Structures are given as structure tokens and as C-alpha cells.
Amino acid sequence: MLASGIKVLFAGQNMQRLLGGFLVTLRVAIIVLILGGILGVLLGALRTLHNRPLRIILRIYLEIFRIVPTVVLLFVAYYILPQTFGLNLPGEEVAVLVFTLWTAAEMSDIVRGALESVPVHQKESGLAIGLTQAQLFRYVLIPQAIPVALPGTINLATRIIKTTSLLLMISVMDIVNVGQTLVEANGHKNPSAAFWIYGMMFILYYILCAPLSQWAKRVEKKRLERANG
Amino acid sequence: MNWTVITQSLPQFVAGFGITLKLSVIGILGALLVGAIISLVQYFRIPGLRQLATVYIEISRNTPLLVQLFFIFYGLPGLGVKLSATVSGVFGLIFLGGSYMAEAFTGGYNAISKSQIESGRALGLTDLQLARYVVLPQGLTASVPALAANVIFLIKETSIFTVIAIPELTNTALDLIGLYYNSNEYLFELVVAYAIILIPLSLALTWLERRVRYASFGN
Amino acid sequence: MAEELLRVEHLKKSYQSKEVLHDINFAIHKGEVVALLGSSGSGKSTLIRTLNGLEDYQGGTITFAGETVHPSKATWLALRQRIGMVFQSYDLFPNLSVLDNILLGPLKVQHRSRAEAEEDARKLLASVNLADYADRYPRQLSGGQKQRIAIVRALALHPEMMLFDEVTASLDPEMVRGVLDIMTDLAKRDMTMIVVTHEMNFAREVADRVLFLSDGEILEDRQTAEFFAHPATKRAQEFLASMEF
């Protein structure tokens, strides 16, 4: 009975449709990573400046995106944007917007932590030889902060990829949604189709995330080895 | 914002609130248990089980909860395993959370400095005694921040239970929106409900982290 | 001369393909205090750690109290009760009180009775002037106090030999004296000791013999007074000239 379901995976255009959904997932993840990454770096750098109101505002922004589940943020944007702001965006764009803001919040904390991990005497030594604030960032802080921020950033990328599975909820035809459609179409005739289709999804997400997780682990290990001599 | 809408829907939200809390607690306790066992399997390098644990952590951490839930709820019946939505949800949360908790525990054990372990060895402690008196007590303390972060993470993840129609908070709000279209009010209630759970909890966990840290390391 | 306690013959140690200890030979008699001197990277820490089974070795033999050490986990577990070791990082276990730190070995490794072991531990604490600190936690102590307790913790097993690996190197200068006094006292009471140290005055006063290591080899094995007065090798002369004492 289990074996019969696997045929559904390869019947007709099914596999192609699944992979098509996978591309939507991938597209959203990449756009979000780039936009959210850039915004996050800027916000993270701003959070290290000695400007109290700015720090507080950015901290509140981070906490909101940390406290409210991403699913809920997604629905808030999905319903509130058209109703309150008259902004009728397609689901995929709403998702990109919400995921980008969430990514930026998380990224800003990674960047802030990495910049602040550079010892104070490094900054003082830089200032002591006459570097400007910008030069300090460019030549002292950023080069030392990148190795610290890298593992967290790679892990954030896997979290973004996994978060794209929420696209289904606002009716974007991502891989999960395509899969669900296939299950609904074939489930009656073939009860084990769901096993194979969701199993396939498992594999696709795994293929995408596992190498990144491995990379993050390797980078972190190397950094710690270097830090501990 | 229409306050009548809010007061009228309050009972449904209270019910959803209870379900979110209940499933979170069960899921988190289960995840802590699974995570603790797995971390010990890895710490003691138990042959066979250790490889199994690695495979589990790999799969659990690199796939979304949503797909895990669909697989458990819709896919497993293909193997003859039929679980209710609620049981699927709890299993899914434990499946996901177990690996996160395991890595938190393991991170704690690994944080124990080499010199602590050598000091223990120099006293003639066996591996088991070293674990029992040196590594585990300190490691648990060191893992508290990561465990706390996972607790918050897992509670938020319960919002995904809505995809298999478990009537928790998010599902309650989406159902009400579907029925009565008052999305502003229902979403407001939803956000407030999560804030009521998560803000005090996150403050309490921060306080706990500090206390535990002070009690064991004095800074 | 007293009975021989430790003999090291043709000891070799490599990390991957790099040999860091070459053909080490020496013997120590009961009650002897040997200072292991040498510049950093000379292999003295590696050598002393090998003598407590914390480093494996690729050749040669170690003989302790007449028995050849078979380098296995079980052998070292048993031997560590007889060979105490104190480290540079005064690693008390932060989760245990001072007393519990000291009692861990006697109770869990030697399975002695609590009453007897505790009485013993309190006596040892009193001998280092820390009798009132039994119930404190490591975080409440200074570095010097922690290191004195780490010594007591090793002594509580009543070892036949003590290894000290740069035990004063991380201490604030004003804490060093107290720790060295305890070691001097131990030496006077005929404890067999191997001491890796940078405290030249201490080595000169307390050690009976000096082993001078350079690049993983013992270049000199001499009576202390002779070594300090007339170092035979150029390396040793340079080393002594570079130290302030």
C-alpha cells in the first residue's frame, strides 16, 4: 500500500509542479536574505552608536519581531495592509515584506553582538592612532566582527528557508502548497500519496538547509579554534 | 477598533490561550526530556545510538515544523499510524524541540573548560564521576540561556499548529476572521494574547539566567 | 639515598608528525624536589602532564614505585590517586563548596568514610590557614586562596608524589608568596615533588635538583646549587640570564 503512493510523485507533471513550488520557496528566501541582510547590517551598526533614543527604538523593533510569532506577523500584514493602508499586494510580496522585516531585526542583533564583541581596547587603539569613526569601522571593527557574525548569519539563512514554509498560509503556491494540492487530488485513490509527497518535501528542505547548517558549524569551530589559539 | 467584538470573542480566545499554553508545556517538557537523553547519548558517545541521534538532529533541525506536522498528520497514516491533530502537534513540537534542546545541553557541556576536566581527571575521577560531579552540573548551568531561548521559540512555533486545525490561539483568530471578518480586532487580541504569555516569561527567564549564573559562577 | 619513586626512560611524545619530547630520561627518589625549568615551548608542561596521564606518549617507559606503567585508562585512574597534580588555572569546581571540592576525591575515588575524610580535609585546610573557608564557594575566594585549596584538594588523596604545573603563573604578585610557602612546607615534610615554575628564587631555595629542558630535550640534570652557579650549556646560561631574580 505504501509503495503505490510513490507513483503519485512521478505521475504526470507532479514532480515538476513540486519543484516549481520549490523555486518559489527559494526565490522568496533569497530575496528576503539579501534585503533583510542589508537592512539588518545597517540597523545593527546603528545600534552600536551612542544614541539612546535610536537604540531604544531599534531595540523595541527587535523585541516586537522576537515576541510575536512570524505566522501572526504574516497575518497582521496580510489583513491590515489592504484594509488600513489600501495596499493590495500579492501574497508573495506581503510575505517578502514581513520576512524581510523579521530577518532585519534578527540580523541587527547578530551584527550588534559581533561589533560589540570587538574588545574596547581595539577601538581605543584605533582612535589613538587617529582613525575617524568611519575608518574605525572599516579597518578595525568590521574585519574583526565578520567571523563572529558569520555562523549566526548562516543559521539565520536556514531559519529564513524554513520560515518560507509559512507561505502556504497566505495562499502562495510554494512547495508546501503545491504538495498539499497534490495530496488533495490523489489522496482518495491513494492514501499513501501524502507520505511520499510530504516525505519529498522533507528531503527538499533538508537538501537546502543541511549544507548551510554544516557550513555554520564548520565556520564556528574554526573561529573558536583560532580564538583559543 | 470595536470593543464589543473584542468582549464577545474573549471566551474563544481564553479557550485558545489555554490550549496554546497546555500544548506548549507538554511539548516543551517532552522536548527537554528528549533533548537531555540525546545530549547524554552524545556526551558518552554511546555507539549506535549516537549515530542515530546525529541523524535525528540533522533532520529535525533542517526541516520546518510545518512540513513535520503535515508528515506526521497526513503522511504517517500511509504507514498505518493515525494520530489526532492534537497528538500530532505535540509530537511534532517534541520532534522539533528535542534537537534544539539537545544542542543547548551539548553546548553547555562543551562550555566546560578543558582545565576543569583535567583537574577532575587528575583527582582520579572516572568518566562517569567526571560527568556526574563536574561536567553535568556546570554544563546545565551554562545551557540555561540556550534552553530559555528554545522555550520561547517553541511557544511561538505552536502558532503553526493552526495548519492542522488545532484550536489554539492563532487558529482561533483565523477562524473568527473567516466567520466575521473583524480582522483588526481579532488580530489585536491574538497579538495581545501572545504578549501576555511571552513578555512575562521572557523577563522571568532572563532573571532566572542571571540567578543561575550568579549561583554557580558568581558573576 | 632514598628509594627510587619514579623513573622515566626514553620517553617520546609527538603531536601528529612533530616530535615534542625526545628521549627523556631521569629518575626521582622519594622525598626529592625536582624543578623542571626551561623557556616557554621547551616541553616542560607537556612532560609533567605526561606523568599524570593527561598526555599520551609514543615511546619509552614510565616506572612508578617499582612498577612499569602500562599506559591505559585504568592504570592512570589508579595512579592519579598516588600522583597529585595542581595546575596553573586554579580550577576549583565552581558548583561545589570548598569542602566538597576537597572531599570529591577521598569520597568518590577512594571511597573513604565521610567522617574520617572530612576531619582530614579540615586539618589540611587549617594547615594552609583557610580553616574558616570550608563552606564557601570558589567564587567567594581570591586566586591565591583558590590555588591553596587546589593544592589541598590534591593532598587530600594522600599522594606519594605531587606535580605542580606553573601554579603561581596566573596569580597576582601579592598572592604568590602564600602558595609558594605551602609548597616549601611540603618539601620540608619530604613530599616528592616535580615543579614546573618560573620562580627562580623558589626553585633555587627549595629544589634538590634541576632538570633543564630545551626543545623537548633534557639538556641538564644537576644539583640545584651547581646548576644556578655554573650552568653547563649555553642554552641554560642564556635562560638564566633572561630571568629576573
Task: Provide the descriptors you would attach to this structure in a database record.
heterotrimer; A: about 230 residues; mainly alpha; MetI-like fold; 9 helices; elongated; B: about 220 residues; about 80% helix; about 0% strand; flat
Layout of helices and strands:
The complex is a heterotrimer of chains A (229), B (219) and C (245).
Chain A: H1 2-10, H2 14-46, H3 52-67, H4 70-85, H5 91-117, H6 120-128, H7 133-163, H8 175-186, H9 193-227
Helix pairs in contact in A: 1-9, 2-5, 2-8, 3-5, 4-5, 5-7, 6-7, 7-9, 8-9
Chain B: H1 3-43, H2 49-61, H3 65-75, H4 85-110, H5 114-122, H6 127-157, H7 169-180, H8 183-217
Chain C: E1 4-15, E2 18-29, E3 33-37, H1 44-50, E4 59-64, E5 67-68, H2 73-79, E6 83-86, H3 98-109, H4 114-127, H5 143-155, E7 161-165, H6 173-188, E8 192-196, H7 200-206, E9 209-214, E10 217-223, H8 224-229, H9 234-242
Parallel strand pairs in C: 3-8, 3-9, 6-7, 7-8
Antiparallel strand pairs in C: 1-2, 1-4, 4-5, 9-10
Helix pairs in contact in C: 3-4, 3-5, 5-6
Q: Count of DSSP E strands of chain B?
A: 0
CATH superfamily of chain C: P-loop containing nucleotide triphosphate hydrolases
Helix content of chain B: over 70%
Q: In CATH terms, what is the fold-level topology of chain C? A: Rossmann fold
CATH superfamily of chain B: MetI-like
How many domains is the backbone of chain C divided into? 1
Strand tally of chain C: 10
Report low-confidence residues of chain C grouped into runs of 5 or more. none
CATH topology of chain B: MetI-like fold
Distance between the termini of chain B: 47 Å
Largest sheet of chain B: none
Number of helices of chain C: 9
Judging by the overall fold, what is the CATH architecture of chain C?
3-Layer(aba) Sandwich
Strand order of the largest sheet of chain C: 6-7-8-3-9-10
The CATH class of chain C:
Alpha Beta
Biggest sheet layout of chain C: 6 strands, mixed
Percent of residues in β-strands of chain B: under 5%
Mean pLDDT of chain B: 93
Specify the oligomeric state. Answer: heterotrimer
The best one-word shape of chain C is: globular
Residue windows where pLDDT falls under 50 for at least 5 positions of chain B: none
